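RECORD TYPE: inverse folding
INPUT: structure tokens
STRUCTURE:
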């Protein structure tokens, strides 16, 4: 067994709270998905359920697998965690249309008496509209990305378990916010297919590319904490930093480029006069009177 894998397995312990929370989210989603599948067979296809579960799996790999041990000794492993949380996991979860499926996973009395009134309240609605504006989402994601890579703040998360968990949570939350304007909120909802989202994705690559280029081409170790650690692997801290920068550069560029190309092709191939009717309206019309509408979540 390679030393890196052996070290990660020997130092790793299963994080029970995180694992249970992700398993609960998967079961809740699948319960809601099967309920919707029975009523509307073509509403949420299988690939969306697979995307949601894979998104949860990506989050677990980032914070619950042996990768979480390697992030304390390798900057490249730390960077892989951030990419899994902010870029891959968050996007896959939103592709599963959780805002449509999850309400149907809760018991109906709990949804109608507790969650429904809460999400329909005016204060929650205002907060939701403010935090899902593209400008806010873009600024929040970029701020989180840049702030946690400032050496002093990076050291805070490196040396404190609590701040380390806050760092992971902020990256995941920022990822959800970032992808929210990009990924259609409902199957058949064409509101996200607009040219401003292509610009949104392009502008997001600029600070990411600047940070990754700085890490990849810098001739000194930016995070000196790694110089004080015992060298367990056949890689120097500077080489590790360069690999972390290259990993971020390549992954983020492709992660933002692919949806930008898909959106561009969709916009060029779809006449402006054609508008799809959001599926949430169809669902609301077909919703039984005694069942809470999923629109209460937005």
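DESIGNED SEQUENCE:
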């Amino acid at each position: 067994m390679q030393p890196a894998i052996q070290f990660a397995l020997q130092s790793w312990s299963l994080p029970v709270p995180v694992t249970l929370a992700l398993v609960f989210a998967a079961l809740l989603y699948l319960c809601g998905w099967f309920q919707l599948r029975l009523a509307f067979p073509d509403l949420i296809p299988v690939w969306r359920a697979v995307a949601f579960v894979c998104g949860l799996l990506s989050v677990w790999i980032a914070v619950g697998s042996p990768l979480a041990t390697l992030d304390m000794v390798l900057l490249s492993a730390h960077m892989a965690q951030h990419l899994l949380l902010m870029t891959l996991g968050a996007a896959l979860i939103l592709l599963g249309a959780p805002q449509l499926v999850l309400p149907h996973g809760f018991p109906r009395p709990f949804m109608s008496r507790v969650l429904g009134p809460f999400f329909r309240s005016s204060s929650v609605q205002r907060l939701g509209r403010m935090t899902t504006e593209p400008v806010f989402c873009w600024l929040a994601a970029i701020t989180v990305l840049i702030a946690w890579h400032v050496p002093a703040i990076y050291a805070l998360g490196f040396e404190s378990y609590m701040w380390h968990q806050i760092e992971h949570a902020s990256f995941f939350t920022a990822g959800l916010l970032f992808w929210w304007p990009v990924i259609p909120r409902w199957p058949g909802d064409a509101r996200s297919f607009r040219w401003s989202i292509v610009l949104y994705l392009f502008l997001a690559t600029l600070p990411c590319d600047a940070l990754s280029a700085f890490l990849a081409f810098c001739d000194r170790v930016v995070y000196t904490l790694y110089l004080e650690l015992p060298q367990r692997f056949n890689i120097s801290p500077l080489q590790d930093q360069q690999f972390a920068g290259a990993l971020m550069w390549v992954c983020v560029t492709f992660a933002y480029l692919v949806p930008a190309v898909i959106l561009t092709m969709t916009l060029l191939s779809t006449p402006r006069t054609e508008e799809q009717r959001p599926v949430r309206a169809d669902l609301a019309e077909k919703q039984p009177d005694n069942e809470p509408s999923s629109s209460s979540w937005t």
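NOTES: The chain has 14 helices and no strands.
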